Amino acid sequence: MTKGKHYCDYCDVFLTHDSISVRKAHNSGRNHIQNVRDYYSGLEPDQVQKIIDSINKAYEERGLPKPRDLERPVGFGSSMTFGSGPMSGVGGGPGGPRCPQR
User: Fold this and answer.
1) What does the pLDDT look like over 73-96, one tens digit per residue?
2) Which of helix, strand or coil describes residue 70?
3) Taking the C-alpha atoms of 6, 25, 48 and 97 in order, what is their torsion angle to the nearest 10 degrees?
4) Average confidence (pLDDT) over 33-59
5) The Matrin-type domain covers which part of the protein (predicted)?
């Protein structure tokens, strides 16, 4: 991997710079959010729950409050949105769960 560039597993692209502002802009983009939704909609519910549990565990280990979307059970209506909150684009992607960066 090239130093100074961030790779997005969901979109299969390298971002031009590895900065927080570039990642936030990418992660809030329409195409990225749709790619994240498509990825998770293709998983079995038990796989999604394992990913959510591993992300929750990472938050607990760091003493951080959990994102609001991770507190809802899987299948709780259709209002669960991926790509929102502080975890946007992080965790459980094609490369497996990742801890949030500080």
Assistant:
1) 555 554 445 554 545 455 555 555
2) helix
3) 30
4) 93
5) 6-38
